[in-house]
Amino acid sequence: MSVPSTEHPGGSWGGNGRSVALLSGCWALATSGNVLLVSVAALTGHMLATDKSLATLPIAMQWLGTAGATIPASLIMRRIGRRLGFVCGIALGVTGATCAALAVYYANFALLCLGIGLLGAYNGFNAYYRFAAADAVPEAARPRAISLVLAGGVVAAILGPWLARGTKDLFGPYPFMGAFAAMIALALIILVVLPFVRIPRHSFPSLHGGGRPMGEIMRQPVFIVAALGGALGYGVMVLLMSVTPLAMVACNHAFSDAATVIQWHVLGMFAPAFFTGHLIRRFGVLQIMLTGAVLLAACVAVAVSGITVAHFWIALTLLGLGWNFCYVAGSTLLAEAHTLAEQAKTQGMNDFLVFAAAGLASFFSGNLLHHFGWATLNLVAVLPIVLVAGAALLLLIRRRAVPAVTG
């Protein structure tokens, strides 16, 4: 199937702008559930865990579940298509949220970890909404399509914390149980929307040969930088964000303040997506990744300077902005690392690395906060930030030295 040019009568979207909008809506609903989960997971874990240093273990299970699902999700979508693949993810999400709700009811920490792990696997499928949008439009429009899908997270920034506050005591003596019920409702709404999305199957022709070995693809400098930008940027974001509600409550701030800080964090993550694609085209993908690293460093600087609500608010907003620039840049740069035949496995490996880094970060974040405090936790983030900046800078210097080399 031929890919329409940007001069297609349907405009730069190749006549598929409606599907990009619907995919953005699906991402917004899925991310609302994830924001809701972020708002309550550590506090629920703290409530149910006997050892309070394990409060973020459910969040670690979430991200490990996401990492474990990314490659199978890519292969499933290659075989049955994006739409049915997303339906499989919804089944995991509904099952996971049900388990988590029952865990609160029965005060069962292990069941909570299982349920949130399944919700993580659901998020592993949801990560492909951005690639589904890229599949649906001409090549020149792909950075903007990825950005606009991620921009749906602006809705999540409003809806997720609002649901967190509104559902906290929905079931009376079972705090946060209502949040997991809300996650089920959000997933079912996505199930209703998906049949109206048109996603071309042209991205999966004759993939049986598989192209180059995965090891050869991963040795490319362009893949290394794309994966580092995505994985370490995501890891830093999760390291700091996942324990923010716990840190704020420990500093005697109200749960409503923590929910508001998370709200601004998510706005920082997704509001720039309206223009990140334009910035990449104007200034270059590596320059935007470097800017993201600088924003992450600014987050750390603010976070270690104080523990007022304003400090948390500014730091977490900068954290969201830095994540957006690193993640969108990494996702865009990844397209340069593979051919069409290598797309599924390359995207799957990239997202596995991204979410594995997030899982490790969330596991260690609870222990670091419990034993060393908020300031030390932030200082730990400096090394991965330097690695992202260094990798992007080295590739940028290489490309400027040899313009003909594309990575």
Protein traits:
single chain, Growth Hormone, Chain: A, 407 residues, mainly alpha, 0% strand, 76% helix, 18 helices
Topology:
Elements: H1 17-48, H2 57-80, H3 82-106, H4 109-126, H5 129-135, H6 142-151, H7 153-167, H8 177-193, H9 214-218, H10 221-241, H11 244-250, H12 255-270, H13 273-283, H14 285-303, H15 309-334, H16 343-372, H17 374-380, H18 382-401
Helix pairs in contact: 1-4, 1-5, 1-6, 1-7, 1-8, 2-3, 2-4, 2-16, 3-4, 3-8, 5-6, 6-13, 7-8, 7-12, 10-14, 10-15, 10-16, 10-18, 11-12, 12-15, 13-14, 13-15, 14-15, 14-18, 16-17
Structural features, described:
- By secondary structure, this protein is mostly helical.
- It has one domain: Up-down Bundle (Growth Hormone, Chain: A).
- The chain is 76% helix and 0% strand.
Which consecutive residue ranges, at least 5 long each, have pLDDT under 50?
A: 1-10, 203-209
Instruction: Calculate Rg over CA atoms.
Output: 20 Å
Query: Based on the structure, what is the oligomeric state of the protein chains?
Result: single chain
Q: What is the highest CATH level, the class? A: Mainly Alpha
Secondary-structure element pattern, one letter each: HHHHHHHHHHHHHHHHHH
What is the strand tally?
0
Q: What structural class do you assign from the helix and strand content? A: mainly alpha
Label the overall shape: globular
What is the terminal separation in angstroms? Answer: 28 Å
Would you identify the CATH architecture? Up-down Bundle
Strand content: under 5%
Number of helices: 18
* Biggest sheet overview: none
